[in-house]
Amino acid sequence: MQHIETDYLIIGSGAAGLAFADTLIDESSAHITLVDRHGKPGGHWNDAYSFVTLHQPSAFYGVNSMALGANRKDTVGANKGLYELASGPEVSGYFDRVMNQKLLPTGRVSYNPMCNYLADHGAGHKFVSILSGAETQVTVRKKVVDATYYSPTVPSTHTPKYRVAAGVRLVTPNALAHLWQAKGERPKHFMIIGAGKTAMDVGVWLLNAGAQPDDISWVMPRDSWLVNRLQTQPGAEFFNDAIGGQANQMEAFAKATSIDDLFDRLEACGTMLRIDSTRKPSMFHFATISKGEVALLKTIKNVIRMGHVQAIEAGEMLLDQGRVPLPASTLCIDCTASAVEQRPMAPIFQGNKMLLQMVRVPLPTFSAALTAYVEANYEDDEADATKNRLCGTVPFPDSLDSYPRSIMANMMNQFHWSQDKILRQWIRESRLDGFGKIIASADPADEGKQAILLKLKECAMAARANIPKLTANRIVA
Ligand SMILES: Cc1cc2nc3c(=O)[nH]c(=O)nc-3n(C[C@H](O)[C@H](O)[C@H](O)COP(=O)(O)OP(=O)(O)OC[C@H]3O[C@@H](n4cnc5c(N)ncnc54)[C@H](O)[C@@H]3O)c2cc1C
Question: pTM of this prediction?
Answer without folding.
Answer: 0.96
